[in-house]
Write a structure and sequence with these properties.
Length: 150
């Protein structure tokens, strides 16, 4: 397995994985190719704040992805460039799950964020994935709260 930071050349595969991950959530009026174009433009507009990490097995096909979004924080005296990070859009092709591939891309994304100076890395997880994140060192805290939408 090879874990690497994705490049713009990977956008069609990233779009395909995102498409597969969300195909049951919302009906889409556009094609996969149209979505890939939208994703390419979205990422180009946010390339300094959003990074994707991917896993490949033997060939060029991407079998898993994890994105990390960097969020600038309000400066404090002596700390003008503060960052937080959020892990997003983690997906592993179903036939490759349960082999540590998702953990590897999440770990790479989280490490990248901390290397760039993030003081906190968060993730909003589905229930089934909570144990995976806990094994990677994520923990629930009483201080991190979420306000539900009405």
């Amino acid at each position: 397995m090879r874990i690497s930071e994705a490049t713009t050349n990977d956008v069609p595969e990233l779009a395909r994985l995102q498409w597969l991950d969300t195909r049951h959530e919302e009906p889409s009026q556009s094609s996969l190719d149209a979505f890939a174009s939208e994703l390419a433009q979205w990422w180009a507009d946010r390339e300094d704040a959003h990074f994707a990490f991917v896993a490949r097995l033997a060939g060029p096909e991407i079998v898993a992805m994890a994105w990390v979004a960097l969020v600038p924080r309000v400066p404090r005296p002596g700390a003008a460039n503060r960052l937080s990070a959020d892990i997003q859009s983690v997906f592993v092709l179903p036939e490759h799950r349960g082999r540590g591939i998702g953990s590897a891309v999440v770990d790479a994304a989280a490490q990248h964020a901390t290397q760039l100076g993030a003081v906190r890395v968060t993730v909003h997880s589905g229930r089934r994935a909570v144990p995976v994140y806990e094994r990677l060192g994520f923990a629930s805290t009483r201080q991190l709260l979420q306000r539900p939408l009405d």
